[in-house]
Specification:
The chain is α+β, with helices and mostly antiparallel strands. It has 2 domains: about 120 residues, Creatinase/prolidase N-terminal domain (Creatine Amidinohydrolase, Chain A, domain 1); about 210 residues, Alpha-Beta Complex (Creatine Amidinohydrolase). The chain is built from 10 helices and 19 strands. The protein has a 6-stranded mixed β-sheet with strand order 4-3-2-1-5-6, with helices on both faces. The protein has a 3-stranded antiparallel β-sheet with strand order 7-10-11. A 3-stranded antiparallel β-sheet has the order 8-9-12, with helices on one face. Helix 7 crosses helix 8 and helix 9 runs antiparallel to helix 10. The longest helix has 24 residues. It is elongated and about 70 Å long. The two termini are about 40 Å apart.
Amino acid sequence: MNHLSQIAAKLPDYRIDAMLVSSAPSEFYAVGLHGEGYAVVTPGGTRYITDSRYTEAAQEAVGPHAEVCIVGEKGYFTFINEFLAQHNVKKLGIEDNYMSLGQYNTLKEKLNAELCYAGSLITGLRASKDEEEFGRMVEAQRITDEAFTAICQYIQPGMTEAEIAARLVYEMLRRGAQEVSFDPIVASGPNGSRPHAVPGPRKVQKGEFITMDFGCKYQGYCSDMTRTVALGEIDDDKRKVYETVLKAQLAGIAASRAGIPGKDIDGAARKIIADAGYGRFFSHSYGHSVGIEIHEAPNANSRNEQPMPVGAMVSAEPGIYIPGQFGVRIEDVVRMDEGGCTDITHSPKELIIL
């Protein structure tokens, strides 16, 4: 997988002669390799520079599409400057959105070109997933769905949140996941009111909710899902909250399509929760994009007035969190299509009582 031609085609839009790819996520997007190096993309070709740890991997993944240089006595910047001179590069785009001030100052000192902020060139391309990227995310989600089925058969009263989180990791890895896309969240009872609770020694108990937020990577692309289950029978107040969150999620999914602003998707879900009287307990945005990273752009939040692009993969995750009592979140990932969306998450959303 590589997207070098797409990057090169965007250079004129930014009035730059070349793009320096330096961040790990963009490196993978550009050349299909999780290494440590730089790619310099021009209309006439690409040079990829890395070190000897990645010689074979770089030749295999990048070699068919770009010139591969292995750093030895000549450092990274010598290789880059040689390539800039060969292609008469005067203006070089950089990933300012992934760069520290120290990194910027080093590039400014070492490189023989004018540095131009162009981070949005690659993040803009990454916002719309092509069919290969979509297929990898579908497979990551299949693994995650299967792990959810397995964990529901595993959970018993008296287990700790940490035990359940560890089992989730195991279930994903044994099914072919490359790694987890983030540390799993397992929050039971009153811990469920914390959207990003850290699994700990608390033991799950009958009559409580257990919220599990987890995902994995498959061939470099993430999945992300949340399900809240009940351990034994629950009271009517908890059921009402669960049904409200489910209705909100379904409303957000129904509103999701390419061309609609992110704030309108967020608003469709938020209105359901507010109308039910729980508005102050929905404390985060409805959704974020997912891809090579677990959090990407664009977002489905109340601040995003930009239309969603075709192919964006966006989480659908409204929640209600009542401090000191419990919380509920339900999350799928959907692809923005023209006229609607495609939900790649297939685990049941109706309340599961273990």
